[in-house]
Write a structure and sequence with these properties.
- The complex is a heterodimer of chains A (152) and B (282).
- Chain A folds into 2 domains: 76 residues, Beta-grasp domain (Ubiquitin-like (UB roll)); 66 residues, [2Fe-2S]-binding domain (DNA polymerase, domain 1, Orthogonal Bundle), CATH 1.10.150.120.
- In chain A, 33% of the residues lie in helices and 16% in strands.
- Chain A contains 5 helices and 5 strands.
- Chain B is α+β, with helices and mostly antiparallel strands.
- Chain B folds into 3 domains: 46 residues, Uridine Diphospho-n-acetylenolpyruvylglucosamine Reductase, domain 2, CATH 3.30.43.10; 103 residues, Uridine Diphospho-n-acetylenolpyruvylglucosamine Reductase, domain 3, CATH 3.30.465.10; 103 residues, 2-Layer Sandwich (Enolase-like, domain 1).
- Helix content of chain B is 33%, strand content 26%.
- Chain B is built from 12 helices and 14 strands.
- In chain B, helix 2 links the parallel strand 2 and strand 3.
- In chain B, helix 5 packs antiparallel against helix 8.
- The chains are: A alpha+beta (152), B alpha+beta (282).
- The interface between A and B is medium-sized, with 32 and 29 residues.
């Protein structure tokens, strides 16, 4: 076991992990942050996307020990004082989800995309979100939601 | 899926990493982890120990030597390569191709050194390194050596690196005057290349002076399509299709659920013609 400290959603959290512990399971099972979903578990679907030092990553393919001393933001960390983040609101208002399973990862990928690329075209949004799969095929409305935030 | 147990060490310096590797034949380097960790989760790789070099920030970044080479630190991530102004200016095919690796999240983690050291013939950056005659700088207990890309890729997942060596830098010849293209054929977003073709073409007097053609996933290593390169040297631009018909000469493409070997041969010919035409138009 190794003792590590990760700043999760602005709060320093200390935890003991096996080196093989994946970041997503440290978040879900040790810290109880179950908003981040495990989908494919093979670096494909993007459901487990979180921000590591401000950049989107697939937390099923990051060891918790790699996040030692770094900052992680999960879907739970986007809201402030009970108010939804503008991307969360845009997903709601544009009906950008059906079953909702991909949504936390999709929103984390979308917020990271806009941070690096504040005014993307429709095509750039699709390319920027290629690492996130939605099996209800709600892509059109997902793109609309991201456009709504980019254009706001 | 959880990897099998392993010991974990954080390298404090390049020398420390070499020391840790040197003492353990069954240790692997961990950089971005986006080739290694998926294999470990599937238990296709079970290293006894990981030496984490991900925090060696001195190994990241791009610098412009005064000579003809761009110097790229081994830990430079694909996302940085794709967006780096020096790479975009001096080696646009590398910036463009780095932006096609995996997906955005993968590009935030994956590194050029890790990608080359992994030795996957379906890796896009390995093909670019081979096509551009890159030099790979490796350090081990006996010091530093420079390996030409043509000598680096030895077989499927096999490279010229010794178990106690690590890549510190990749030196890429600048290509600014040349025309270029990389075409990656894949069935779905974020797949590996079924086949990829890189073309770097120098033109003169309306014809082709010289061309370099690299192939992704057409054998156990990235390959150069030397028959096409010979056919294009000094040729007119009308001869592209005839030259591209030789693209699969000397290749041994794999067959898998995405494509048969024959379909890959077909793709290599069609994509080579397209890549050369696209390069000439750029």
């Amino acid at each position: 076991m190794r003792s590590i400290a990760i700043t999760v959603n602005g709060v320093r959290r200390e935890l003991d992990v096996e080196p093989r512990q994946l970041l997503v399971y440290a978040l879900r099972e040790q810290l109880g942050l179950t908003g981040t979903n495990v989908g494919c578990d093979t670096t494909t679907c993007g459901a487990c996307t979180v921000h590591l030092d401000g950049e989107s990553v697939k937390s099923c393919t990051v060891l918790a020990v790699q996040a030692d001393g770094r900052e992680v933001t999960t879907i739970e960390g986007l809201q402030s004082n009970g108010d939804l983040h503008e991307m969360q609101r845009a997903f709601h208002e544009n009906h950008a989800l059906q079953c909702g399973y991909c949504t936390p990862g999709m929103i984390m990928a979308a917020t990271s995309l806009l941070k690096e690329h504040p005014d993307p075209s429709d095509e750039e949004i699709r390319y920027g979100l290629e690492g996130n799969l939605c099996r209800c095929t709600g892509y059109h409305n997902i793109v609309k939601a991201v456009q709504a935030v980019a254009g706001a | 899926m959880i990897p099998a147990r392993f010991d974990y060490e954080v390298a404090e310096s390049v020398e420390h990493a070499i020391e840790l590797l040197d003492g353990n034949d069954d240790a692997k380097l961990l950089a971005g982890g986006h080739s290694l960790l998926p294999l470990m989760k599937l238990r296709l790789a079970r290293p006894a120990a990981l030496v984490d070099i991900g925090r060696l920030s001195a190994l990241a970044g791009v610098s412009n030597g005064s000579g003809p080479l761009l110097r790229i630190g081994a830990l430079t991530r694909h996302h940085e390569l794709a967006n780096d102004p020096l790479v975009q200016e001096h080696c646009p095919i590398l910036a463009y191709t780095a932006g096609l690796v995996g997906d955005r999240q993968v590009r935030h983690r994956g590194t050029i050194g890790g990608s080359l050291a992994h030795g996957d013939p379906a890796g896009d950056l390995a093909t670019i390194a081979l096509t551009l005659d890159a030099q790979i700088v490796a350090r081990g207990p006996n010091g530093e050596r420079t390996i030409d890309a043509a000598e680096f890729f030895k077989g499927f997942y096999e490279t010229a690196l010794a178990p106690n060596e690590l890549i510190t830098e990749v030196r890429i010849p600048k290509t600014e005057a040349a025309h270029w293209s990389y075409i990656k054929f894949r069935r779905r977003a974020l797949d590996w290349a079924t086949v990829g073709v890189a073309a770097v073409v120098e033109s003169a007097n309306g014809g082709i002076e010289a061309a370099r053609i690299g192939l992704t996933n057409m054998g156990p290593t990235p390959l150069r399509a030397t028959a096409v390169e010979q056919a294009l040297a000094g040729a007119s631009t009308d001869s592209v299709e005839a030259a591209a018909a030789k693209a699969d000469e000397g290749t041994s493409p794999p067959a898998d659920s995405f494509a048969s070997a024959d379909f890959r041969r077909h793709l290599s010919r069609v994509l080579t013609a397209r890549a050369v035409e696209e390069a000439l138009s750029r």
